[in-house]
Write a structure and sequence with these properties.
The complex is a heterodimer. By secondary structure, chain A is of the alpha/beta class. Chain A folds into 2 domains: about 290 residues, NagB/RpiA/CoA transferase-like (Rossmann fold), CATH 3.40.50; about 55 residues, no CATH class. Helices cover about 50% and strands about 10% of the residues of chain A. Chain B is an alpha/beta fold. In chain B, the strands form 3 sheets. Chain B has a 6-stranded parallel beta sheet with strand order 1-12-7-4-2-3, sandwiched between helices. A 4-stranded mixed beta sheet of chain B has the order 8-5-6-9. Classes of the chains: A alpha/beta, B alpha/beta. The complex binds iron/sulfur cluster. Chain B: This is Lactate utilization protein C.
């Protein structure tokens, strides 16, 4: 289970709302990203057909996940790789740390991976005496700063160039200039040395392919290529839903991911890794391990509606159109996965409706997320269901009860609910410009003050603070 | 042995958990029927004129700061590369030891120290050389017009480091190998390799290494090559 932030959601949001620099940076970033995405969606013929195709591919995969996971496993083994299964985060950490120790690794390079954030891998490896280096530029910056990602696609958007230059200067032991080329050059040189020396490369997995046993890695920087070409051992870690059945499915998901994420037609690098290097190959890894992680996903899978959230391709588009994300940024969510999709999956992954169950309230239910999602996940419907779920689990207050009562009334008349949601999203139309919501949200004040009322904390802030302090300084 | 046993039982338990969540007693073992696979039908069925893929490739790669030069034959290709090496003030190049690349390009004519990626040298030595080289030269199995992408099949004499470590990557290809969309590559790749017989890594490269991680400011060459230039042989 993840460490909980010290503050309740409302207080985290209030804190974020006071951080003008961060909020400006977030606004700039999401405006750019969603603007680019709209352009990319217009440029690809029949965008809606692509979305539907993506949904069908993902849904079919998830509905038959047992079959395709077995197929993937067999084919990774056929290609000479080894496959490991972890039901929990703890098991995953154990497996990966064990492998690193078995190979006597001293230096581990990582390319960006949300699932390794989710299972809190880095502290475990460091505790086992290894040096761990994040190689994605943003992740490297965050590692130096001791912070966590605030966006799936651009994890360090909350940091400005001066803060980055300060961090780099500390590493360099001399002043590093704050212009982008100088900062990039510094990162290239420093990280290149790490790549050349690393014993193990750890990667995530954007899409595994069941029929070939391939792991597909997508980056713009090329760090996943370096992480898999140079070290002698590669460990790829995947959430158990990150696969497609067939090679040809890649064209659809690989087209939709970058277009939805940054508006690019394709990312600069797509690497399809098929096990370890073959006998005569010179570079590439000697040993390839795939670690497949459940960590609460089977709980999501067991509910046919929540299951749709596993169709996510982690493009971040829902963050970029979310009026709440736009105002509070990623850290206020307090969870590894933020934004609308994070608000859906976090309570379920953590199996915690008391604390993490608050996240579905970090939404105006405007449905902008649903209309932008390339996998057509009905995010705001799932957010509503989660709110109801929380109420029925007994965590509630008057305000939520009222909201839930209304929702239940609507839900009894099937057509009405759909209509209400449609009306709600149509109601947003005047606010939507270039596909994202530009108006200030008068509701936000209400959202933080009255619409949202946190559940009573089961320990006081002082208790938690004491505990945290103990954990930080052992 | 214990490790393997442990893994096997973990595997069974894991797949069992997934099957149960899907409402099944045990994991599905017959292939489920699929409604839709791959890209949408209209996309697979679209027709392109002969010259379109090259034109698209050029436009799209150039839009990503790449260069594309079309030449008639191998000796023109060699000259073009020689010219670029001069422009770059390059001293050294590392080349794939690919039979087709060798057929077209005359390494002795390039005017720089040229090393081939093959088993005459050790892994460490080759990686070191690639890291120090000014330019890496590869042979492209397929290029994709619609996105300005080159697809590289990595293997024994076609190491990944060559297109990755030097600051400039020069990709050489035949016009006939430029296809309109990824669909063709995916289809031919599977057919060509047969199942379970893929190269250990396939790279789709679309433009130079880039990042927007610093204040959303586009920056080129953070990890991989700063430049990707293409020579297309009409032949
Ligand atoms: S939920 Fe949809 S929009 Fe959000 S990250 Fe996942 S795929 Fe992208």
């Amino acid at each position: 289970m993840s460490e909980r932030p010290a503050l309740q959601l409302r207080d985290r949001a209030v804190k974020a709302l006071k951080d003008d620099q961060m909020r400006q940076a977030v606004r700039n970033a999401v405006d750019r990203l969603s603007g680019n995405k709209e352009k990319a969606a217009r440029e690809l013929p029949h965008w809606e057909q692509w979305r539907e195709q993506t949904r069908l591919i993902r849904q079919h995969t998830i509905d038959n996940l047992d079959y395709y996971l077995k197929m993937l496993t067999d084919n990774v083994r056929k290609a000479g790789g080894q496959v490991h299964f972890a039901l929990t985060a703890e098991a995953a950490r154990g497996i990966i740390t064990g492998l690193c120790q078995q190979y006597e690794a001293k230096l581990v390079v990582k390319s960006k991976s949300m699932v390794t954030e989710e299972i809190h891998l880095n502290p475990a490896l460091e505790k086992a005496g290894m040096e761990v280096v994040e190689s994605d530029l943003a992740e490297y910056i965050l590692q130096l700063a001791g912070e966590t990602p605030s966006h799936i696609i651009v994890p360090a958007i909350h940091k400005n160039r001066y803060q980055i230059a300060d961090l780099f200067s500390q590493v360099a032991g001399e002043k590093v200039e704050s212009d982008t080329p100088a900062l990039t050059r510094f990162a290239r040189q420093t990280l290149r040395e790490k790549f050349m020396e690393a014993d193990i490369g750890i990667t995530g997995c954007n899409f595994a392919v069941a029929e070939t046993g391939s792991v597909t890695l997508v980056t713009n920087e090329g760090n996943a290529r370096l992480s898999t070409a140079l070290p002698r051992v590669v460990i790829s870690v995947m959430g158990m839903e990150r696969l497609v059945p067939a090679f040809e499915d890649l064209e659809t998901v690989l087209s939709m991911l970058p277009r939805s994420a940054t508006g690019q037609k394709l990312t600069s690098y797509i690497s399809v890794i098929n096990g370890p290097r073959q006998a005569a190959d010179i570079d590439g890894c000697e040993k390839f391990h795939l670690v497949i992680v459940d960590n609460g996903r089977s709980r999501i899978l067991a509910d046919e509606e929540y299951r749709q959230s596993l169709n996510c391709i982690r493009c971040g588009a829902c963050f970029n159109v979310c009026p709440v994300y736009r105002q509070i940024g990623g850290h206020a969510y307090g969870s590894v996965y933020g934004g609308p999709i994070g608000s859906v999956i976090t309570p379920l992954l953590e199996n915690d409706f008391a604390f993490w169950g608050e996240l579905p309230y970090a939404s105006t239910l405007c449905a902008a997320c649903t209309s932008t999602c390339p996998a057509k996940i009905p995010l705001q419907e799932l957010l509503l269901k989660l709110r109801a779920h929380r109420v029925s689990a007994g965590y509630t207050n008057t305000f939520e009860k009222i909201a839930f009562g209304l929702w239940k009334r609507f839900f009894k008349l099937p057509g009405t609910y759909k209509f209400a949601m449609k009306a709600a999203s149509l109601g947003q139309k005047p606010l939507v410009k270039n596909g994202y919501i530009t108006a200030r949200i008068p509701l936000l004040a209400n959202w933080t003050n009255s619409r949202y009322l946190p559940a009573a904390a089961d320990e006081t802030f002082r208790d938690r603070w004491k505990k945290r302090k103990k954990q930080v300084s052992p | 042995m214990t490790v393997i046993h442990g893994d096997l039982s973990r595997e069974t338990q894991f797949l069992q958990t997934v099957a149960k969540a899907l409402g099944r007693d045990k994991a599905l073992s017959v292939a489920p029927t699929r409604q839709e696979a791959g890209p949408p039908a209209f996309w697979r069925e679209q027709q392109f004129e002969n010259t379109q893929p090259l034109a698209l490739f050029k436009t799209n790669l150039e839009a990503l700061t790449g260069k594309v030069v079309i030449v008639r034959d191998g000796s023109e290709a060699t000259n073009q590369i020689k010219l670029w090496l001069k422009v770059l003030n390059a001293k050294s190049a590392i080349l794939w030891d690919h039979p087709t690349l060798r057929k077209y390009i005359e390494p002795a004519q390039l005017g720089v120290k040229a090393v081939f990626w093959n088993n005459e040298r050790s892994r460490e030595e080759l990686i070191e050389i690639a890291e120090q080289s000014d330019v890496g030269i590869t042979w492209v199995d397929y290029a994709i017009g619609y996105t300005g992408t080159v697809a590289l099949f990595n293997g024994a004499a076609t190491g990944r480091s060559v297109s990755l470590l030097p600051p400039t990557h020069i990709a050489v290809m035949r016009q006939a190998d430029i296809v309109p969309t990824m669909s063709t590559v995916m289809r031919e790749l599977l057919a060509r390799c047969g199942q379970g017989n893929l190269p250990s890594a396939i790279d789709f490269i679309t433009g130079p290494s880039r990042t927007s991680d610093i204040e959303m400011d586009l920056s080129i060459g953070v990890h991989g090559p700063v430049r990707i230039w293409a020579v297309v042989i009409e032949d």
